[in-house]
Amino acid sequence: MVIANHPSRTAKGLGIWGRHAPKEYRARHAAAPRVAIGMEGAPGHQAARRKSGLDTAHGSRGLYRGYPMGGFDQMVATLGGGSDALLGQGLHWTITASSDSHGHWREGGADFWPGEYAKTWVFAAPTSPDLLKGLRTGRMSVATGGLFEQLGVTAAAADLAAAMGDTLGSRGRRDARHHPFPPCAQRQCRRDGARS
């Protein structure tokens, strides 16, 4: 399973993709849809601070030259951006949040401990196969800063319904709606591979 790391780190501005573009991710997914499943939406190094003597990238949050948006990569954070384009083309493309921890900020580094700040919540039974299936199908959500511990979404169109990670074809219907639901009623939530 491959999740692309740092999608827009080489971007030189908002709306500029840098070395990696949605077209590349679409090609990877087309070549191996059960392997190339998504991208890191909330990059690590969220504790990075501007420091004298460091270049713009290494002195900015996420080491992103000042272009993470609320801690998220611009491919994810921009409405209609790269991630939205991939989803709009029908790809099951997931987003993760990572710590990418090389050195904790209290010890002079630019990172948090894994799961301390950025979290990927996968709705899965406590087994490796279901955890991997949850990642592949998008039965997951991400957060930074402990904003929530559970999130679920259902969508419905007339007599059709889909939960997080499912596909709902509305076929042009205008009566589609969505509403939250308790996500862990059927499955146990897992975060960073640990049982919660």
From TrEMBL:
<feature type="region of interest" description="Disordered">
    <location>
        <begin position="171"/>
        <end position="196"/>
    </location>
</feature>
<protein>
    <submittedName>
        <fullName>Uncharacterized protein</fullName>
    </submittedName>
</protein>
